[in-house]
Amino acid sequence: MSLLITGAAGFIGYHLSQRLAADGQQIIGIDNLNDYYDPALKYGRLAELGVRKEAIKPGFLTESDDYPNFRFAQLDLADRKGMEALFAEEKITRVVNLAAQAGVRYSLLNPHAYAESNLVGFVNLLDCCRHANVEHLVYASSSSVYGLNQTSPFSVSHNVDHPVSLYAATKKSNELMAHAYSHLYGLPTTGLRFFTVYGPWGRPDMAYFLFTKAILRGEAINVFNNGFLYRDFTYIDDIIEGLVRVIEKAPVGNPNWDALHPDPASSKAPYRLYNIGNNRPVKLLDFIATLEDLLGKEAIKNFLPMQPGDVDSTCADIDDLQRDFGFSPKTELREGLRRFVEWYRGK
């Protein structure tokens, strides 16, 4: 019996695959290896998992050279027949969906990529899970769903009907689609709203990665909203620890759920939503100052107004996750950035 991790060559997917494979679990990883950012980074992550680029054959499972319990296939969630074939051939009991077209600003430029991956791909996965009687589907949502919400910290009990980017809209759609399958077919689903994840092997389109690259090259960095942005930066190891705990405990229906006063985070169906973040937002200018100190070099700052699709502050209310799973982020920002800088300089 296997656990399927989609987006296994991505930032979070790679770290989760490595953690669970090291723990001895039977893991199947899939990823479409698209070129949203340089695929060399994705192949580098796979190499760390023991899967060589030259050994990958699209549609076929490749065994890891380092982890006998990890196999990988290049496969797109939007490939309905390919997904159905995988579930027909393998006994998949749990699924963690970390595959998505990511990026808020890119969704303004290429909206169709988000519909194909985040909507078509997700419904394909839901239907495969339904027919395979999967015991638990855990899927990545995003803090972006909070959109125009101004109440801080963000709570899963808040209304999230006003997204400000297509990316956020697709993530909110994923939550609605998951609820429909939980309600109709009893498929246990847990959605995790991630808050600004950072760390080694991270995405090169994220601010901390772009800042580090530019500062070391002596190039200017773009500082949006003149630096008056706050983000709930969450270190990757804390995210993975939370994920591991959530995977093991499938949700059950909330017997106290009231349709007249509905709680958006739960349902009579086996469906739950949680924030997974640090609960300690940091001002962007302070974040940059910490990075400058670690790099030993001052940034050339290009101050710009707020960008379309952005929000000025994020902060996660993680009380539910702490109560139900004992989740408690432990990594201080400076330590997390130190580890990232050490990795970046050594790569």
Q: What strand line-up does the widest sheet have?
A: 3-4-2-1-5-6-7-12
- Give me the Rg, rounded: 20 Å
Note the main sheet.
Answer: 8 strands, mixed
Mean pLDDT: 95
Short descriptors:
347 residues, alpha/beta, eight-stranded mixed beta sheet, two-stranded parallel ribbon, 14 strands, 17% strand
How do you describe this structure in short?
This protein has 347 residues and is α/β, with parallel strands linked by helices.
Explain how this protein is built.
- The protein is 38% helix and 17% strand.
- With 347 residues, the protein is α/β, with parallel strands linked by helices.
- It is built from eleven helices and 14 strands.
- An eight-stranded mixed β-sheet has the order 3-4-2-1-5-6-7-12, sandwiched between helices. The chain has a two-stranded parallel ribbon with strand order 8-11. A two-stranded parallel sheet has the order 9-14.
- The mean pLDDT is 95.
- It has helices at residues 11-22, 39-48, 80-89, 106-109, 111-131, 166-185, 207-217, 236-247, 284-295, 319-325, 333-346; strands spanning 2-6, 27-31, 62-63, 70-74, 92-97, 136-142, 189-194, 197-198, 220-224, 230-231, 234-235, 271-276, 282-283, 300-304.
Write the SSE topology.
Layout lengths: L1 E5 L4 H12 L4 E5 L7 H10 L13 E2 L6 E5 L5 H10 L2 E6 L8 H4 L1 H21 L4 E7 L23 H20 L3 E6 L2 E2 L8 H11 L2 E5 L5 E2 L2 E2 H12 L23 E6 L5 E2 H12 L4 E5 L14 H7 L7 H14 L1
Helix pairs in contact: 1-8, 3-5, 5-6, 7-9, 9-11
